[in-house]
Amino acid sequence: MSAAMSLSTNPDPAGDIRDKLIIGLDVPSVEEARSVVERIGDAGTFYKIGYQLAYAGGFEFARELIGQGKKVFLDLKLHDIGNTVEEGVRSVARLGATFLTVHAYPQTMRAAVAGKAGTDLKILAVTVLTSYDDIDLVEAGYAPVTSAELVAHRAAQARDLDVDGIVCAATEAERVRSIVGPGRLIVTPGIRPAGAEAGDQKRIVTPAEGIRLGADHLVVARPIVKAADPRAAADAIVREIAQAL
């Protein structure tokens, strides 16, 4: 029995512990994504499809994964006029995805909640990208607001608009949890196993730290997808998650 399969019975009120790891399919083609999923096998149950793959046939591949019993997180970070967002979310809900991201602007979040009404789709509000720090916010015109202050402000707005969850850096998860309460999801990117390169992420933690800080799901892409053995890399992270719970 694989490590992943043995961990799937670990006591976890949310279900299969492997679902806590969302594997980012940040690859340029469906063929490469399919190869990665095949190599990971039953070590992976939940996959993220972002811009790169979505616009290269990723929506059809999402249907394929869902048909195989996998969960799909469409990381599209929608942000547009309300009607456009609402209708776009309605289309994504019909696809069968589990999570969809929108930017945490009130009008956008309100429209997304309306668009997914009556479905199982969960909307996640992106507060501040994990590639941003306070200097980036100054350049974007947000000064004198810090990244932590902006995350807290947007998390409170998302809570009040009945958004299902928040995407934030794990370093902000404790504060976000105190704002949104226990009933909403916290999903954290910027996760790097010990010794892995940070890449373009600036606010990073290890998988165990992410769980201890209160994240419900961890998004990991390059450390798994680019690993010599993606299955072993995924298994190792799932084991680390189990130990941290």
Automatic annotation (TrEMBL):
Its EC number is 4.1.1.23. One of its GO terms (biological process) is 'de novo' pyrimidine nucleobase biosynthetic process. Gene3D superfamilies: Aldolase class I (3.20.20.70). Pathway: Pyrimidine metabolism; UMP biosynthesis via de novo pathway; UMP from orotate: step 2/2. Keywords: Decarboxylase, Lyase, Pyrimidine biosynthesis. GO terms for molecular function: orotidine-5'-phosphate decarboxylase activity. Belongs to the OMP decarboxylase family. Type 1 subfamily. Pfam families: OMPdecase (PF00215). Substrate binds at residues 26, 48, 75-84, 130, 192, 201, 221-222. Catalyzes the decarboxylation of orotidine 5'-monophosphate (OMP) to uridine 5'-monophosphate (UMP). CDD domains: OMP_decarboxylase_like. It catalyses: orotidine 5'-phosphate + H(+) = UMP + CO2. PROSITE patterns: OMPDECASE. SMART domains: OMPdecase (SM00934). Homodimer. The active site is at 75 (for ompdecase activity), 77 (proton donor), 77 (for ompdecase activity), 80 (for ompdecase activity). It comes from Microvirga tunisiensis. One of its GO terms (cellular component) is cytosol. Residues 20-237 form the Orotidine 5'-phosphate decarboxylase domain. Transmembrane segments: none annotated. This is Orotidine 5'-phosphate decarboxylase.
